[in-house]
User: Fold prephenate dehydratase from Azospirillum argentinense.
Amino acid sequence: MTTSNVIAFQGLPGAYSDLSCRTVFPEMTTLPCATFEDAFAAVREGRAALAMIPVENSIAGRVADNHHLLPEGGLHIIGEHFQRVNHQLLAPKGATLAGLKTVRSHIQALSQCRNMTRELGLTAISHADTAGAAAEIAKLGDPQHAAIASSLAADIYGLDILKGGIEDAEHNTTRFLILSRDPKTPPLPAEGTGAKIITTFVFRVRSVPAALYKALGGFATNGINMTKLESYMVGGHFTQTQFYADVEGHPEERSLRLALEELTFFARAGEVKILGVYPANPFRYQESQRIGED
Assistant:
């Protein structure tokens, strides 16, 4: 195995991040990391070629840790992946639904499967992560205790799937970013192909009235679609806010180039940083069509 064939993720084997890595890069070997910081470090230090990092979920919202890590992590976004989260109820061999008393998983997974937990009358026990809960249930070997995790976790830890697709919401999907040491900027799409490019960047505005309004004006006047804009505190100061943005477009396109130039007039010096330029995953537009958006 060479590091060029390794992709890092946060969590234990069988985590949804592990499943996402295997889905997008089936030819690569996955590298479990204890923390998101460790996954970033694995790529920076050459122990992995790529990292797969979750940034938002359609139910739970953004993964705040990674919005803080991305600007300073020293890596570049080269792609995105949308992973449908299909929760499974896992238990040791021979367990039955009627015999279960508790279910363990990450707090978000538990909250996403409340209907099933209530229906079966189970006591929910929070765990650090879904795959870790599955590993613990396998170690216990007690048919009264179950875990909520992925089908991959069931295979890895030798557990039975007592009930599949137990999430309350059918749209439960996590967006992942694919990170690399070096940027991999795609060329400008040829006209008429319909291919779209996403540019992700962070910025901080100067402390003047209407600074954010003025900073974003260039995107409106140049017809740039901003698909995400989030703010978060930096440095522990309530008056210092950093903004994270996704826009449709390539920095070499005249319209986005002009919008970014205008942004620099109102942003703090040196505080506009492009984190990645990468192909838009078709899922984002298929989802818009499904729910009838323009």
